Structures are given as C-alpha cells and as structure tokens.
Amino acid sequence: MSNKTTLKRNKIKKRIRKVVFGSNERPRLSVYRSNKEIYAQIINDVDKKTIVSASSKDKELKIETTNKIEISKIVGNSIGQKAIKAGIKLVSFDRNGYLYHGRIKSLAEGAREAGLKF
After folding, report:
1. CA 37, CA 42: separation in Å to the nearest integer?
2. Rounded Cα–Cα distance for residues 71 and 51 (Å)
3. pLDDT 10s digit of each residue in the chain, 118 long?
4. Which domains does the chain have, with CATH numbers?
5. Which of 39, 23, 19 is nearest to 31 (CA)?
6. What pTM value is reported for the model?
7. How far is CA 73 from the centre of its chain?
8. H-helix or E-strand containing 86?
9. CA 105/CA 11 separation, integer angstroms
10. 73: phi then psi, degrees, rounded to nearest 5
11. What is the gyration radius of the CA atoms in the chain, in angstroms?
C-alpha cells in the first residue's frame, strides 16, 4: 500500500474515532483488513480490553472458499455468535478508515445475521 493511501486512511480513521467509542453497554466492533486476511475485535475502550475477536485465520472456522467477500461474511457471523455468547447484543461499528463497501460491508452483514445490532 502506498504511503499516500495509508495517510488518507489514517486521516479518515481519526475522524471516525472522534465519534465512535466503546463503553461497557455498547462496545466497539473494530475491523482490520489486509490483502489476504480480515480481522474483527469487540473492544471495551473504558477498560481497554478486547472482549471477543475473530479472524479469517481461525482454525475453527474451516473456510473452504477462496472468495474474500464470502470469507468476510463467515468471520462476521463468527464474531456475532461469540459476542452473543459473551452477552453483547449492541455494538458501535468502527470501519477503521475503510469504505463501507465490499469486505467491510460483508462482515457487517454477517454480524447482523448472527444477532448483533449497530
């Protein structure tokens, strides 16, 4: 990724993080996307702790497809199920400077299908 693209994404990320904050009642669902993998975490910013995490590298997901959008949906569904087990139903979505499009949108839809609300 070029330096110009990274700077632009970080600028957008700072603007988003001014508004999105994870509390005890409504933690933050943060998404990171690399070229090959996708990662999601539910974070409580008050206690500075990660409550639940999921990624496309998890062995228990047993991903059979190579389509990145489908993989993102599976990861979103996984983090949604883990969050429901942990007693979390309401989250704030932090897209981390990425456009709400493609893999980020697919992960969000998967989490919504699992029962998360944001």
Report:
1. 17
2. 22
3. 578 988 999 999 999 988 888 888 899 999 999 999 999 999 999 999 999 999 999 988 888 888 999 999 999 999 999 999 999 999 999 999 999 999 999 999 999 999 999 8
4. 3-114 (3.30.420.100)
5. 39
6. 0.88
7. 11
8. none
9. 20
10. -65, -40
11. 14
Distances (CA, A) of 70 to 50, 67, 92, 107: 25, 5, 23, 9
Number of H helices, E strands in the chain: 3, 4
Residue type, 34: S
| Residues 29, 110: Cα–Cα separation, whole Å | 13
Which DSSP letter does residue 94 get? E
Please report the DSSP string for 29-70 in residue order: EEEEE-SS-EEEEEEETTTTEEEEEEETT-GGG------HHH
